[in-house]
Amino acid sequence: MSVMEHSHLLTPGWPDDGTVDERAPGLVTLVGAGPGDPELLTLKAVKALQAARLVLYDHLVSPAVLDFLPPDADRVYVGKESSCHTLPQASIIELMIRLARSGRAVLRLKGGDGYIFGRGGEEAQALVKAGVPFTVVPGLTAAQGAAASVGIPLTHRDHACSLVLTTGHLRDNTGLDMDWPMLARSRQTVVLYMGVSNLPEICRQLVAHGLPGDTPAALVEKATLPDERCITGTLADLPALAVAHGVKPPALIMVGGVVSLRAQLMPGTGAAAHRGDRTPAHALA
Ligand SMILES: C[S@@+](CC[C@H](N)C(=O)[O-])C[C@H]1O[C@@H](n2cnc3c(N)ncnc32)[C@H](O)[C@@H]1O
């Protein structure tokens, strides 16, 4: 269901039409829905979904996760695909607060973890300011789901003693003003969210700031979902591989020595695109 099917929820002034609403505000539960595979939801998230009466959910929440909702729960899609926002963020916040102030409990459902590139922090700040009670249920972030699913540990004593999660898409897309010397450090893993359209520039800058062109790098598209793909290469050839394989968001860019471990941990997957089958070949032998 889309916001359009819930136009009464979006009417300015709804639900009180100017009258003072004296009810205590409902609780907002900010829930991370994980990277896609519903088996990766936390138990707390499942319980919150099963008890929900009204949910505002984002673009990256997979349909299989929504299946945990009671059939008669009100579902409002407020999704966001980059540059294609169903509702602007300010309107999402306004709607969430208005609904809570009407006395309704609101489940705010976001892909991955709400506090990792999910604007959960902004929404929590707005709830505090509005005096609306809230609670936060974490979710597995896409990097964790991808790591387990494609066989790329995020840290490993032989390859990476630090991990950086960063975004490859800056607010208002004002150019990639990033801390390249920090990102190009050796013995670290860098995972970039929202970076597919800037992949050539990202790889170019990392090499320009000192990482060798043969540094292992991967793209993981639709991690943990049945049509997941993982493409591995190096900083030098990943942009061309991305074009050749038609990689599209949602996808993560993973950079660092840990990417080379995939060949050992998932033998048989090679350097090419790997679709679907997430069972390591050795587990079947
Ligand atoms: C707005 S951020 C949301 C991140 C989310 N809060 C999290 O913790 O994973 C959206 C970006 O997350 C990444 N992403 C989310 N789910 C993904 C998935 N299943 N596979 C690959 N990347 C994913 C992509 O880079 C996508 O462009």
Search tags:
285 residues; alpha/beta; Cobalt-precorrin-4 Transmethylase, domain 1; Methyltransferase, Cobalt-precorrin-4 Transmethylase, Domain 2; 2 domains; six-stranded mixed sheet; five-stranded parallel sheet; 13 strands; 28% helix; 20% strand; elongated; disordered N terminus; disordered C terminus; binds S-adenosylmethionine
Can you walk through the features of this model?
This protein is α/β, with parallel strands linked by helices. It has 2 domains: 3-137, Cobalt-precorrin-4 Transmethylase, domain 1; 142-284, 2-Layer Sandwich (Methyltransferase, Cobalt-precorrin-4 Transmethylase, Domain 2), CATH 3.30.950. It has helices spanning 7-10, 43-51, 63-66, 89-101, 120-130, 142-150, 180-183, 199-208, 238-245, 262-265, 281-284; strands at residues 28-32, 54-57, 74-77, 80-81, 84-85, 106-110, 134-137, 162-167, 188-193, 216-221, 229-234, 251-255, 274-275. A 6-stranded mixed beta sheet has the order 8-9-12-10-11-13, with helices on both faces. The protein starts with 6 loop residues before the first helix and ends with a helix. Mean pLDDT is 88; it is low at 1-5, 11-17 and 275-285.
Summarize the structure.
The protein has 285 residues and is an alpha/beta fold.
What is this structure's SSE topology?
Blueprint: H1 7-10, E1 28-32, H2 43-51, E2 54-57, H3 63-66, E3 74-77, E4 80-81, E5 84-85, H4 89-101, E6 106-110, H5 120-130, E7 134-137, H6 142-150, E8 162-167, H7 180-183, E9 188-193, H8 199-208, E10 216-221, E11 229-234, H9 238-245, E12 251-255, H10 262-265, E13 274-275, H11 281-284
Parallel strand pairs: 1-6, 1-7, 2-3, 2-6, 8-9
Antiparallel strand pairs: 4-5, 9-12, 10-11, 10-12, 11-13
Bound molecules: S-adenosylmethionine.
S-adenosylmethionine binds at residues 35-36, 60, 110-113, 116-118, 141-142, 146, 193-194, 220, 222-225, 249-252.
